[in-house]
Automatic annotation (TrEMBL):
<keyword id="KW-0520">NAD</keyword>
<keyword id="KW-0560">Oxidoreductase</keyword>
<dbReference type="InterPro" id="IPR039697">
    <property type="entry name" value="Alcohol_dehydrogenase_Fe"/>
</dbReference>
<dbReference type="GO" id="GO:0046872">
    <property type="term" value="F:metal ion binding"/>
</dbReference>
<comment type="similarity">
    <text>Belongs to the iron-containing alcohol dehydrogenase family.</text>
</comment>
<dbReference type="Pfam" id="PF25137">
    <property type="entry name" value="ADH_Fe_C"/>
</dbReference>
<dbReference type="InterPro" id="IPR001670">
    <property type="entry name" value="ADH_Fe/GldA"/>
</dbReference>
<feature type="domain" description="Alcohol dehydrogenase iron-type/glycerol dehydrogenase GldA">
    <location>
        <begin position="35"/>
        <end position="193"/>
    </location>
</feature>
<feature type="domain" description="Fe-containing alcohol dehydrogenase-like C-terminal">
    <location>
        <begin position="204"/>
        <end position="394"/>
    </location>
</feature>
<dbReference type="InterPro" id="IPR056798">
    <property type="entry name" value="ADH_Fe_C"/>
</dbReference>
<dbReference type="InterPro" id="IPR018211">
    <property type="entry name" value="ADH_Fe_CS"/>
</dbReference>
<dbReference type="Pfam" id="PF00465">
    <property type="entry name" value="Fe-ADH"/>
</dbReference>
<protein>
    <submittedName>
        <fullName>Iron-containing alcohol dehydrogenase</fullName>
    </submittedName>
</protein>
<dbReference type="GO" id="GO:0004022">
    <property type="term" value="F:alcohol dehydrogenase (NAD+) activity"/>
</dbReference>
Amino acid sequence: MNIFRTIFCRIFQAAFRLALPLLPYREPEKLTGVKDIASLLTEKHIHCAMLVTDKWLHDSGATKPLEEALAGADIKCAVYDGTRANPTVANVAEAREIYLKEGCGCIIAFGGGSSMDCAKALGARIAYPEKRLNELKGVLRVLRRIPLLIAVPTTAGTGSEVTLAAVITDSDKKYKYTMNDFTLIPRYAVLDPSVTYSLPPHLTATTGMDALTHAVEAYIGRSTTKETRRRALHATELIFANIVRAYDDGHDAEARANMLEAAYNAGIAFSKSYVGYIHAVAHSLGGQYNIPHGLANSVLLPVVLEDYGKAAHKKLHRLGVAAGVASESDSHKAGAEKFIAAIRELNRRMHIPAVLDGIEEKDIPVMAKHADREANPLYPVPVEMNARELEKFYYKVSGRKAKRSSGKEEEQ
């Protein structure tokens, strides 16, 4: 990236960092079980709730305890279960039609990040009926209060139950965009480990590594606070101690609860300190090929961290110490290398691939431009890169050879 654009990005990021104490961040109130939702809605005199989930969760019966609890409290439950793995503009429109038709008074997001993103975007469209969804993308576009939003995470990874972000896919343009607004933070988060028991091992793995990516990118960025550093370190410690346990035994209640706590803390950390190029590249891959976000982050995480080099060594060393894979006596470089190696070993242990299939070379320049637009100037990354420089990450995770500027090829 040229020096003038780098300076602009750093000034932009510094301004946001200085504004942090003035911004209306808030934490959701925690509930410990899905049955608590019924009594909450009764207290708030809400008689019809909109449940946003996906078909697999609904058909498997995972939402049944919640639906029964609502019925027992004489609360109608309108269900939208069409959410895709990367929720689309069409998903939001379909959910909105049901919400308005049934006269709902709140939204319950039940699932992983996709269901929560869909629910947040639905809330934005309810608050702004006169606008199209793409008019609400970006930062601070949704200023009106959305309907009461309750998040029930069934994966311990996305952190969406505490964040101000929603990611939506425009299927026609094969492009993902983000919405970042304080009104999108759920009012309540239900951390109930029992709803995560049915999560398959491969999703336990990739969503858990997604949470680790949130913690790591929040920690190594240049807009951290004492609180976000503490939460990121705590999340990293919990993930390294519990993710393999949850992967090996989906009914390990303690491991599941600890992973939910880790995702919650990582979500708060990156909401305030932002993410980085790992997420930007992952979002573009999801938009282009519908690659699940957690999988893309899992594969990209060690690749991008290694590329940052010495700019990230000190902070990666500290993360390695928190994870229990490095010692205080290690040099920053050695500690960082041990941490990156431990991430690769976690991926290997949980059968997460080292490369992503299906990436076509002709699509790389366009995806890199999308990633550039998302990340710059907002994300306070250790090293600034432009679209051309970001292209290398697509080559590295595709197993392809990248072309040098001279036209020769280079093995990545």
